[in-house]
Amino acid sequence: MIIEPIRDKWEGTMSDRERFNNQMHFKPVDRCFNMEFGYWDENFTEWKLFEENGITNNAEADLFLNFDTIKTIGGNIWMSPLFKEKVVEETATTKIIINNEGLLAEVPKDGHDTIPHYIKSSIVTPEDWKRCKEERFRRDDPTRKVAIEFLKKLHPVDRDYPLGVSCGSMIGKVRDLLTFEGLAYACYDYPEMVEDMVETCCLLVEDFLDQVLPHFSFDFASGWEDICFKNGPIVSVDFFKNVVTPRYKRINKKLKAYGIDLWFTDCDGDVRPILPYFLEGGINCLFPFEVNGCAHPSELLHAYEGELRIMGGFDKMALGNGKKAIKSYMESLVPLVEMGGYIPFCDHRCPPNVKEEDYLYYLDLKEKMFGMK
Predict the structure, then answer these.
(1) Strand ranges (DSSP E) for the chain?
(2) Is residue 362 a contact partner of residue 319, using CB atoms and an 8 Å limit?
(3) Does position 353 have pLDDT exceeding 90, yes or no?
(4) What CATH number does the domain located at 16-79+122-370 have?
(5) Would you say residue 117 has pLDDT above 90?
(6) I need a surface site. Which of 102, 160, 248, 251 has the fewest CB within 10 A?
(7) How many Cβ atoms are within 10 Å of 39's Cβ, its own excluded?
(8) How would DSSP label each residue in 237-258?
(9) How confident is the model at residue 354 (pLDDT cuts 50, 70, 90)?
(10) Contact 165/73 with Cβ under 8 angstroms?
(11) Mean pLDDT across the stretch 251-259?
(12) Domain with CATH 3.20.20.210 in the chain
């Protein structure tokens, strides 16, 4: 499918790669890097903008709205093989399923985009983990071998866009596997099991990095560590400091050896209690920085000036409250864009309650304020 952009790309005198690297390293740029995190699934059926133009997913939307290009290389660094998903029970409105990570979960029958209600994990005891690890977390799994030559053709040396390498998750995916409640109990009942799960995640990422780092000039590293909610981290700060951060340090050592000094991770909620340990471990950028669960991005960018970066941080609530709220919030970001180390976009997937005309106003205003003058 050939996608015809509905908007012109922002004018510029630098390549997307040059602009991204300069902006995230507090250096002069021609204009702000222009990107968004994406949209809820409902947006693609409820927004005429997308529905009438056949835009069905976030990758297509990025092309359709002509954002700057940013890409990431990832590998098979998690459970392999996954479980076969199956329906266990159905009601009029919901399905009880075994999902692809072996969790018993309740999901809406109509398939609308929402967080499932997790009922039970397949891993509760160390014996459960031992069996799952032997079957589904083997480091010698042949599917973990990276197709280097294929990726080289996709991402040539003379590319003009920033390219990242995925460093996965040390504890966020463990939370997914055990469930929120299950992780809380396991940290108390089976701390050695949880640490071994974190160590396994780290080893799989290290194996992947050893394969790809020699072959690409990466501009950043990325990760996913959804381990916080509005009241802070769901594991203790001591656990995070003593178990998770040392694994970050090992990964960061490999990244630094290949010149990668920008590492962002996706973590919602209030990250402030564990932010010092993110930084200590080498993670120096937050993405997409959920405002209502934490703070206005200026609070942390000033508190850790020159050390921390943020990508995101445009309050989705303001985005849904109309043009006046959008303009007011956008104006509050001006000093941060001027300071560098900050790229503004919606602080999570844009929800469907945002009106199409307001979203287009937001994009226009962002270009007016942060595009080339």
Answers:
(1) 71-73, 86-90, 94-98, 104-108, 117-120, 163-166, 220-224, 228-229, 232-233, 263-266, 285-287, 309-311, 342-343
(2) yes
(3) yes
(4) 3.20.20.210
(5) no
(6) 160
(7) 23
(8) HHHIIIIIHHHHHHHHHHHHHT
(9) very high
(10) yes
(11) 98
(12) 16-79+122-370
